[in-house]
Model the fold of this input.
Amino acid sequence: MQDVVARLNVADWGWKTSWGKSASGGAVLEVQGHFLKDNAAAATLEILALPDGRTTIYVEGNRGKAMNALGGNIFNTGVKRFQKKALEKAQKILAGP
Done:
């Protein structure tokens, strides 16, 4: 798991990112989209180690802190799209050289 976290940590995501720890002992990466381009949506990636030595990543999209604070984006416009963009970016980072 540590090698996956290290690769994701040093990569250029193109969005603002912040790291934390999950309650289950994994690492949590929050990726915040651009206000206009991505509707300020965000995605949370939870990176966990499996008992067999593999690593899994769970991705969850949300409206983001900015939209929650403003009370905007009540229909979650663009959340699913940004969640997919974040997952594809993580796959590209992990598959790269």
Notes: Residues 2-85 form one domain. The first strand starts at residue 16 and ends at 21. The first helix runs from residue 2 to 10.
